[in-house]
Design goal:
The protein is mostly helical. The chain contains four helices and no strands. Helices cover about 75% and strands about 0% of the residues.
């Protein structure tokens, strides 16, 4: 699952608990924004909360509910970082072996 997908679910949850209604077009724009903005996030531990806060502010969703997500996101964030770094190392080894 993409990082942006996890963040999309989190921010839609924040919108629902804060009573912010999003149209289908806004929802698609929100998901697209999160996927695009989170491309480099897995390699940087802890940055997903900053991305969530900035996108929430841009869509008028109060960021006060981020406290609920912090505990769960830390576990997901560690998993994303491990997978990203493992993929980077694997790609580097494959490239080294094919270029030598």
């Amino acid at each position: 699952m993409l990082t942006g997908d996890n963040q999309s679910v989190a921010i839609l949850f924040l919108a629902q608990i804060s009573g912010v209604g999003l149209s289908p077009a806004e929802t698609l724009l929100l998901v697209g924004t999160l996927v695009a903005s989170s491309i480099g996030a897995p390699g940087t531990p802890g940055v997903s909360i900053a991305i969530l806060a900035s996108v929430a502010a841009g869509f008028g969703i109060p960021a006060t509910g981020l406290v609920i997500i912090l505990g769960v996101d830390r576990l997901l964030d560690m998993s994303r970082t491990v997978v990203n770094v493992t993929g980077d190392i694997t790609a580097a080894v494959i490239m080294k072996n094919t270029l030598t």
